[in-house]
Amino acid sequence: MYKLVIRPILFWFDPEKVHYFTFSLIRILSKIPGVPFLFRSLYEVKDARLETTVFGLTFKNPVGLAAGFDKDAKLYQELSNLGFGFIEIGTLTPKGQEGNPKKRLFRLKADAAIINRMGFNNGGVAEAVVRLKNNSNVLIGGNIGKNKVTPNGEAALDYEICFDALYDYVDYFVVNVSSPNTPNLRALQDKEPLTQLLQTLQNKNVTMPKQKPILLKIAPDLTNEQLLDIIAIIKETKIAGVIATNTTLSREGLQSEAKIEMGGLSGKPLTNRATEVIRFLAQQSNNAFPIIGVGGIHSAQDALDKLDAGASLIQLYTGFIYEGPNLVKAINKAILNRM
């Protein structure tokens, strides 16, 4: 139904406008008595064998929604009814910001991909916290970043502000230094500034009543030498794990005319590279830390490949847009089928 009827209609329109329209539609439908139950009955796979404990948290299933879809924590409860085991909100910044000028989101239908240069558009961490206070039972990750106007030398303070604000309301944190759409942000992935940033957050974390897992989200464009640095940094700072990967700047093999657009590429063209990064990190670290695999998951087999490469959990974004919520169900069923 989604791929045959709904998606062709949605794909006629501007992707950013469709995103907000879909948000509103899901919210309205979810207020109708019985509809949340209907969504769960259609897309949720309930089976205790799907439960997995990673970095001290128990996930009802290993399929999550990646950051960027529900930036401002406006729809996490409703989205959880579509079968996800966890929802990652953000990227959030200390102050709200508009992001980059529109048009900033592009479909590459021939490549089953998306290019975005959103630029951390969000209403600010304080607004998200208000909505997160209403959370009842959704496992939430908080993806945090810095404001565009904040110099890299002062970036740690922005991440600390978000950490403090979200601490009571999220189950784990994700440090996003890998988006290509905030000027100079990826420079924070260099060994020295990244170590300092993560150590600052970890030092704060250990003073809290209960430590929250801190993960690092990395770019797929890192070299093997840089990935080895990431492994060393995780060992030194003792953060909980990695999310691999964010969007890529590569345009190799693309067919769509929109490939000329600036921004981060996600979707099927990222499938193999994201899996390669996961496998490299797992093998070179001897599985020393958990990895959440994300990037180019458009089928159950794509998800299984990432789990086989060393991921403990996976996340969807572009695949969810192209394939619809039935992809969540298909992945969870595939996991069960090979147990």
From TrEMBL:
This is Dihydroorotate dehydrogenase (quinone). Its cofactor is FMN. The lineage of its organism: Bacteria, Pseudomonadati, Bacteroidota, Flavobacteriia, Flavobacteriales. The keyword Protein biosynthesis does not apply. GO terms for cellular component: cytoplasm; plasma membrane. The gene is pyrD. FMN binds at A67, G68, F69, D70, K71, T91, N143, N176, K217, T245, G267, G296, Y317, T318. It catalyses: (S)-dihydroorotate + a quinone = orotate + a quinol. It is a peripheral membrane protein. NCBIfam families: PRK05286.1-2, PRK05286.2-5, pyrD_sub2.
